[in-house]
Amino acid sequence: MAEATQVNREKLETYLKQVSQQVMAGFNCSLSYVGDELGLYRQLRDEGPVTSVEFAECTGLHERWLREWLRHQACVGQIEYSTENDSFSLSPEAAIVLCDDENPFYFAAGFKAVVATHSAVPKLGDAFRTGLGLSYDDQGEACACGIERLNNYVPRNELVQNILPSLDGVVEKLKAGARVADVGCGAGQAILVMAEAFPASEFVGYDTSEHALNSAHAHLRETDLKNVRFVNPATEPLPSDGSVDFATTFDVVHDAPYPEQLIADVYGCLKADGTWLCSDIRSFPTFAENLAENPSAGLFYGFSLMICMSSSMSTPDGAGLGTLGFNEEVAREMTEALGFSRFERLEFGTSVNSYYEVRP
Asked: Mind telling me which Gene3D superfamilies this protein's record contains (predicted)?
């Protein structure tokens, strides 16, 4: 019989507090999602400071439910509370994170992405037993929508303005008229921005998710663009004749069940002087480094288990790279092994992503 382990009461209480905070965070994702869907953060930004009664009047919602929601949000530190007049408000910083989807610090869509995965939780036990994960379409339309909203800033504000000009000769080709393939295009945010900026070029977005393609087609219908198509590579594969001038992938390779095949397909589609812009999640080569140096590692491993690694293992022989699995070292090794001769990390980057210029 094992000897009884002596328990440190102070450490026990500290650990219980830590777990309690995680449970609280779980509730907060659901309740913040509701607030985002109802437009409560934007309303609070525009109308605050307000009491719950005043908030009910300006939103048209039930005061008692609003009162409890406001109190919860104040307790978790997402909104401000004044004891002087029992009012609630949103700080300027909170307004950026929770309301301004044109700002790089915006993150409210993360709540939607998390809540959208809740339906997959009962299936995780089977995934642990069999190894088989869920594809993006298995996760449902809401998950695709949440991820789309998380990925709006860089395409709208950085891609044409800063990223493309940092690539050797790419802008000149796009202005003159180039063939472009966006592999794993999702809802099409990046390719639509590029197509508008470079009307002489022809753009094709490829994605296996029908939810993503439906959204991409809907966004395309809102424009007058005639130089963009969206297709499923299962029915129209990426060309293998070396006819593409410029290929892009944005947070795609780590999701892919067959990343080597994806990289090989990109290599095969490109002209000899073509360019691949590869963006993926910034991470370290080892778990020990991510644990010690990456303050968002817990968030990313959560995304990985619920979405990214799950997608990468949605086939029986999937690679399972995971959200933090395609770091610069791995990316360099895999691209070189599959024929690419030039790999450079761009100076441009964000706290989340690294960007690579890869050439045959």
From this structure: Vaccinia Virus protein VP39, Winged helix-like DNA-binding domain superfamily/Winged helix DNA-binding domain
- The conformation of residue 253, written as its DSSP 8-state character, comes to G
The answer to whether the CB of 142 falls within 8 A of the CB of 37 is no
Per this entry, what is the length of the chain?
Answer: 360
Backbone angles phi, psi at 149, to 5 degrees: -65, -30
In angstroms, the CA 36 to CA 113 distance is 12
- Report the distance separating Cα 33 and Cα 31, nearest Å: 5
State how far the alpha carbon of 359 is from the alpha carbons of 176, 204, 206, 272, 307, in Å: 20, 19, 20, 8, 29
The number of beta carbons lying within 10 Å of the beta carbon of residue 8 is 9
Residues 37-92 have pLDDT tens digits of 999 999 999 998 999 999 999 999 999 999 999 999 999 999 999 999 999 999 99
Residue type for 80, please? Answer: E
> Phi first, then psi: what are they for 302, rounded to 5°?
-65, -50
Backbone angles phi, psi at 326, to 5 degrees: -115, 60
- For 193-245, the pLDDT digits (tens) are 999 999 999 999 999 999 999 999 999 999 999 999 999 999 999 999 999 99
87, burial (CB in 10 Å: exposed 0-12, middle 13-18, buried 19+) = middle
Helix (H, G, I), strand (E, B) or coil at 87: strand
Q: Are 71 and 83 in contact (CB under 8 A)?
A: no
Distance, CA of 72 to CA of 95 (rounded, Å): 17
**Cα distance between residue 39 and residue 79, in whole Å:** 14
Q: Which domains does the chain have, with CATH numbers?
A: 9-99 (1.10.10.10), 120-359 (3.40.50.150)
Q: How far apart are CA 341 and CA 225, in angstroms?
A: 35
